Amino acid sequence: MLRKILTAVCIVELVSPKALIAAAEQIALENPGECEYEPWVVPGARIEGLLFLVLMWRSDASYSGFKKLLGFIGVLAFLFPRAYVDYGSELAYADATDCEWRSWVYPGTRAVGLLYLSIALRESLRK
Q1: Which of 5, 41, 85, 109 has the lowest tally of Cβ within 10 angstroms?
Q2: Contacts of 14 (CB under 8 A, 6+ apart)
């Protein structure tokens, strides 16, 4: 089920990255219209979507590795949610200091990190 959900997200990211980014900004930012993302963000999202699809569907081993990669990302998001979001903002936005994140974004990042960690842990325990 996880593979199907992530596949759907990755296909949207590959086919229509601007729409996905705009939707995410509407949800997460207080001022989405005032934050200008860097020129590399849209092609980068496409590459990420394609790379994740390849990792998820190339083989069972690559899918297992993908879930472990989520665990690594999860550790960072869980332990350092503010740094994770702020660093990502600095990379993605030309004017990152102008971006006003909604109050739930940092605890939400921690929760997603915990979810990613649990996916990786479950995968590690399967073997």
Answers
A1: 5
A2: 46, 49, 50, 53
Query: CB–CB of 81/117 below 8 Å?
Result: no
Alpha carbons 45 and 13: distance in angstroms, whole number: 6
Confidence (pTM): 0.89
Per-residue confidence in pLDDT tens, the chain, 127 aa: 899 999 999 999 999 999 999 999 999 999 998 999 999 999 999 999 999 999 999 999 999 999 999 999 999 999 999 999 999 999 999 999 999 999 999 999 999 999 999 999 999 998 6
DSSP secondary structure string for all residues of 5-71: HHHHHHHHHHH-HHHHHHHHHHHHBS-GGG--B-TTHHHHHHHHHHHHHHHHHS-HHHHHHHHHHHH
